[in-house]
Amino acid sequence: MSNKRLGIIPIALVWCTSLIAFAQAQTLPQPPQVASNKTIDLGGRGFAPPEATSQEASNDENEGLKFSAKAGVASDYVYRGTTLSDHKPALGAAIEATFARFYAWTTAATVRLPTRPDAELAFGGGIRQSIGNFDFDLGGSYFAYPGGMPGASSIDYWEAAFRSEVKLTESLRWAGGFAYSPNVSNTGAWSWYGASGLGYDLPARLLPPDFGMSFTAAAGYSWFGHQSAALGGFQLPAYLNWHAGVTFTYKSFNLDLRYHDTNLSKENCFVFTGDPDARGGGHRDPITNPGGLISNWCDATVVAKAWIALN
User: Fold this and answer.
1) Which residues of 25-58 are buried (b: 16+ CB within 10 A; e: fewer)?
2) Please, what are the domains in the chain?
3) pLDDT by residue (tens digit) across 14-37?
C-alpha cells in the first residue's frame, strides 16, 4: 500500500471523564487555546495561540482590539494521541487578535509527515460567548501543509469546532466539545471528534507569588467516513486517545509535562498515519494493510513543552 494511499495526518480524539457534563457542553480541538493553568486541552494543536476565556472577552468587549502571542519548543508534537513530528522535537509560534467576543489567530509549527511538508500553517477565528457559568467557543480552522514532496497530493483541510467550559468550584473546571471536518486531510473522508476533560488549579495561597500549577486530563474519540476511491475507499479506523499532565507557570513562562496514549493498534496506526518508516511483522489485512506494516506513531509517550506567552 503506497504512502499516497495511507498518508493521513492523525486526526484526533479525546473522550473524557464526566459524561453528564459532556451532555451539557462541548468542544474539540481548540485551535485557539493555550495549554496553561487556565485551559483544558481537548486535543488542540501543539502550539495553539493563547486566548481569553469567554468571560474575560465579555468583560473586555469595550476595550478594543487586543493581541497575544506565544512561542515555544516541545520534545514531541502530539496531536490527539499521534505524533506529527515522528517523535522528534518541534518548534512553534502563534498570534491571536481579539475584539470583544470575536477572535482570529494563526500558528506555525515544524512537522515530520509522510508528504514531507515544510511546516504546518493554521488559520482560524470565531466567537466566544458566556451564558450563565458556561463559556462557549464556536470557531473554524484551516490547516495547510506547504512544500510537500513532488507529486504528493495536498493534505490541507478545514474543521469546525464547538467548545464549552464551566468552573465547577474555585479550583475545579470541566470542558467538552465536538469538531467536524467534511474532508479530513483531503482524503475524502469526513471526521467527527468528541472530547471532555477536567482541570484542577492549585490554590494560589499554596504557591509562591507569580507561580501557577494545574493538573489536567482529557480523553476523546474520533470516527471517520470512507476515503476516496483513489485512496482505497475504505473507512479510516476510529480510536480513543487520552492524556494527563501538570502545567507550571511563572509570569510569562510555561512548562507542561504530559502523558499521551491511544488505543490504536500498531497496524491501524500505520493505516491512519502512513508512517514512511513503518516496518513489517504485523497482522495483515487484505483491504487496509496487506503488508502487515506497523508504526509507533500512536504509542504512549511523555511530552515536555515550554513556551513564552505574551498578552
Assistant:
1) bbbbbbbbbbbbbbbbbbbbbbbbbbbbbbbebe
2) 3-310 (2.40.160.40)
3) 333 332 232 222 223 333 333 334
